[in-house]
What does this fold into?
Amino acid sequence: MPEQSIDHIRRMIARHKLWDHIFAIVGILSLMVGILTLLALFTELAIEGAPRIGWKLFTSFPSRHPEKAGILSAWVGTTLIMLVTAASAVPLGVASAVYLEEYARKNWLTAIIEINVTNLAGVPSIVYGLLALGLFVYKLDFGQSILSAGLTLALLILPIVIVSAREAIRAVPGSIREAAYALGATKWQTVRDHVLPYSLGGILTGTIMGLSRAIGETAPVITIGALTFIAFLPQSPFSDVFPFVSFRWLMDPFTVMPIQMFNWTSRPEAAFQHNAAAAGVILLVMTLIMNGIAIYIRYRFRKRIKW
Amino acid sequence: MRRVREFIIESILFLAALSSVATTFAIVSILVIESIPFFRHVPLLVFLTDIQWTPLFDDAHYGIMPLMAGTLVTTGVALLVAIPLGTTIAIYLCEFAPHRVREIIKPFLELLGAVPTVVFGYFALIFVTPIMQKLIPGLPGFNMLSAGLVMGIMIVPYIASVSEDAMHAVPKHILEGSYAMGATRFQTAVRVIIPSAFSGIASAYILGISRAVGETMIVAIAAGQQPNLTLNPMEPAATISAYIVQVSLGDLPHGSIGYQTIFVAGLSLMLITLIFNILGYFLAKRFREVY
It folds into this structure.
């Protein structure tokens, strides 16, 4: 091969390699944009919110005076709603996943259910709010209550729970099921005693991820008519008389953390921005802790179970 | 006895699985039922062509165009940020990044996707808008640009992770073939991976569009809530979803025309999302590579 064309080829290779390096730098820069935004967001919230973060924030009701305003009604509301959401989304989601993975025959009905779950995951969250407004608040007459909000968020995270539970169930090897059948177990016994316990880690991870999504959802909860200013707590779930628990809090009006933050953000007085930032910090920390727990559980179960 | 119990359990599980279909059915029927009285009052043609949206004023106009424009502009700005960034990150993580970097970076990206949108809205209004105002003098305090930019950053993790999954699914022997021919990583990424994974990448983009179209709190906080028929991102405007939130914050009597408008807005939102999803389905089908 003549000297000249080898030179030509070398130059071409060098040029292509240069592009490789350029792209690697562009890739790192793109990643940095995302991560720097995240950092800027955390710092901004922490600096702005610092003067308000303290014990008093958790123990005070919202108020007209920014220094006195707190998130008591908001975090209580969020906690109660998450209870309702978890209590309705988990059984429904896991049952759907068990049906789709273990029982469903391959027919058009199953196909419809599967396509439907995928599509539901893409429905804008505010549309769930409209569904809840029309169905739970007015048709079923639950009113603008904790029950309505909890059920709305449960429907919203149902696809997340179903998809992750299905993945977890699918990861259980078929040999486990066959061993159970060989010993004479029925399908349900196999599912209850073997498949579900082994897939518990994945199901928990998916559920917590779903709940961490629900905790930050604002729009659907506003749509069903959550109040933005609540200076009282729902009725206590404990009562003096037998059976010592009461479910009347389900029907009480409520507010939640993201709505409280939104309310403070949209106030014209600049002092309320500190309250908004403080609420944002608490909300972020809640989301972070939930995601952390989910990742930890996934890690633990992965390590413990070796097929 | 065992048979009966098994049958009952299977039926219960089946009903649970059907609940998701029931949800879809309920969403569609509630939106349609609550919208019908509105369209008796306002003809469809007026709804689509009137250039004002002022349903709560005395001089009421019911034209969806201003809200539609707001939604399209914010979505457009968000995609201009999210698609290049998301695709670059996906290619970088898939082909360039060392294993260690990947393991460290991915949780951060997941975290970015988990930030509540109301926090992003606050960030857009309090942090991004003042910076943009320094760069662009005369930018109003509420504008679609900041909202769209932050929304774009919010969508990046979704686009990056779905496209990366698609790129990972490209069979390794094809990549090795490309490397064996002397192609660099960048050449392989552009000429081999992207075309092979195109249907998956297209679904990632569609997912991003659906997120942006339906995103509510960022635009409700940072873009202003005045319906405004404009395609200029420097102006304030309301989107379809922001309008729903704005009306819900007030106290609207059940059954009034104002109450019906939010369901009409919701129906329009669903239809836009549906159109993009169908488009995505056909795109994915058209470009699907089978190995």
The two ends of chain A are 57 Å apart (CA to CA). DSSP finds eleven helices and no strands in chain A. Chain A touches chain B through 85 residues (CB under 8 Å).
